[in-house]
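Re: the request from the purification team.
They wanted to know what the chain is likely to look like in 3D before they choose a buffer screen. I agreed to run a prediction and write the result into the notebook, where they can find it.
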Amino acid sequence: MMKNKIKSIVALLFVATVSLNAAAQDAKPAPASPAATATGKVGGATLTINYSSPAVKGRTIWGGLQKYDAVWRAGANKTTTFETDKDITVQGQKLPAGKYNFFLIPKESGTWTAIFNKEVANTNPFNYKEAQDQLRVDVKTKALKETQERLVYKVDNKGFALEWDKIAVPVSVK
């Protein structure tokens, strides 16, 4: 009788442990910088931007977390990519159809550099090579009325914009 009680208790503990482990595996925390995609049409071209979306979380972003005058992956985790299915004009300069790594160089002056880099096989933003740039253009930032907590890209009929913290970086596309 005592043997049966012990077997029952051991079996019950085993089932409880397996159930708790299974529940713990299902409850994965949300990523700090989830993957996101922005897509839209500009003229006849479809633009697609794949990026990871970090949050401000009370941090100083521009000039703090993201240094001025340094190439930045324009998102989090791996490099942000920009794709167009047709040739387009970006800030008045031609960009052939294709897929590019997209970088920004934030500058305290408010005129930033947008970079479309041909080396898309390189998803490590720390291996950026300027020699692979297809196009570099200057863009003027705009102040946002309210803080944009999570980095987001928006595509509209005039181009696309990155919005994060208190700054928008609109890029004109035709």
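For the purification team: Residues 2-26 form the longest helix (25 residues).
Please add any questions underneath this entry.
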